[in-house]
Design goal:
This protein is an all-alpha fold and 285 residues long. It contains twelve helices and no strands.
């Protein structure tokens, strides 16, 4: 693999992983358009590890509080007065559906659903649903909570307050996350969509989605690591290291800019992009 290919794929992964536009769609489309051979499992693991470390580093203070709250909940066998521990358990429980779905449907996803037709339709349909959830987000908030929820993010508890995320929201977002196994769906996109439908505002839905990415990424990384350990393929270190650094830096910057952007800009630009991307993919199918 050449350095140019490694850098381009790393940028694609880093930029698209946390935007609601599907990284899997782009990582299939770009090599297809450039007629590049499959980059191999080691390269995929490097990129996924880089973006996972980026989100871990970005939310390191939040994760430290969640870890302390989690340990405290186990030690005291209670979540009373422990907002961080409650959120930590919510993140773990919301991950169960996608973990089970991944075990059950891994072969189907890997072999049957990685077509341009599936990716194109998924990009369009889930993009339109994102538009609906965002456009009428106030209505969903009134429906579920009777009021607009606090814009404070779900992981920060300096003030002693935590965003009011209900167990109902956790269940809905958790099952929605399982749909992200369908290529073209976008894990961040579908979880943000579900969060908006359940009454969260954009910032809160995005931050909850990114905190979920820490747990899901750890599970996916462990699974890929096992697969890589059993593989006997040669590894090119130079493009791997360059790609890791590029993916890490671009992912960290994307998370920061996205969270800044959505406080004042709607999801419509991402929806338009998804629809255009989906139509383009369908034209190639």
């Amino acid at each position: 693999m050449g350095l140019l290919q490694a850098v381009i794929l790393a940028l694609v992964q880093g930029v698209t992983e946390f935007l609601p536009i599907s990284s899997s769609a782009h990582l299939i489309l770009v090599p297809y358009a450039a007629d590049w051979p499959d980059q191999g499992l080691a390269f995929d693991v490097a990129l996924n590890t880089a973006t996972w470390l980026a989100v871990v580093l970005y939310f390191r203070a939040d994760l430290a509080r969640l870890a302390r709250g989690f340990v405290r909940s186990i030690a005291l066998k209670s979540l009373e007065g422990n907002a961080s521990g409650r959120l930590a358990w919510m993140l773990l429980i919301a991950t169960i559906p996608v973990a089970v779905a991944g075990l059950v449907a891994h072969d189907a996803v890997s072999n049957s659903l990685r077509s341009l037709t599936v990716i194109g339709w998924a990009s369009i349909l889930w993009g339109l649903l994102l538009y609906v959830s965002d456009k009428w987000s106030d209505k969903w908030a009134d429906m579920w909570a009777g009021r607009r929820v606090d814009p404070a993010d779900p992981g920060r508890v300096e003030s002693g307050e935590v965003l009011e995320i209900t167990w109902r929201t956790v269940i809905v977002v958790g099952f929605a996350q399982a749909l992200a196994l369908i290529p073209g769906t976008s894990r961040s996109g579908i979880t943000i969509t579900a969060g908006l439908f359940m009454g969260l505002n954009r910032t809160s839905a995005a931050r909850f989605s990114f905190l979920l990415a820490v747990v899901v990424g750890a599970l996916a990384g462990a699974s890929e690591g096992v697969g890589l350990a059993g593989a006997a393929t040669p590894i090119e270190l130079q493009p791997l290291i360059v790609a890791f650094c590029v993916a890490f830096g671009s992912a960290y910057l994307t998370i920061h800019l996205f969270l800044q952007l959505i406080s004042s800009v709607s999801m419509t630009p991402f929806v338009i992009y998804r629809v255009l991307l989906g139509l383009f993919l369908l034209s190639l199918a």
